[in-house]
């Protein structure tokens, strides 16, 4: 099995980095291949260009570019080659970081990741996606007030659907991360490892 991990956090000392390292270790067992795309380390350009956008002309959706730009094509090819897609990022201002959102804007393009007629690209059907996020927001409060559900709805449930045929396997959100003791952080990493290992079964 081949896993593509897309990661977004600028600090190498972050807890997200620990989650990334745990994920790579958990998913690369028994000959399984893991490819990591560290968007910040890559200096991935998150800005959607005018020629990349779709617009309506003569009643049809069109774009100026006939083919994706080279950096986008690389990312799309990696998605096609993978069986499992894993996205790791912090929640800032109740949303994914700008560089991850820019990745979505540019890579999850019309004609590849979705079509207006609802017909998925056959190369995407039956892939699985899994998201892992951290936040400073207390987890208990976020579960109670519906914030976590709203974040999931906006950042994962709407993204993977019948429109592209990719199945969402889960979106774990770990709260209060900056305030937790080492022992509690270690428990979270154990949970991440266990959850990801189940995806290999």
TrEMBL record:
GO cellular component, one term: cytosol
Keyword list, A-Z: Oxidoreductase
GO molecular function, one term: NAD(P)H dehydrogenase (quinone) activity
Domain Flavodoxin-like fold as annotated: residue spans: 1-149
SUPFAM superfamilies given in the database record: Flavoproteins
Pfam families on file: Flavodoxin_2
Sequence similarity: Belongs to the NAD(P)H dehydrogenase (quinone) family.
Protein name in UniProt: NAD(P)H-dependent oxidoreductase
Taxonomic source organism: Vagococcus allomyrinae
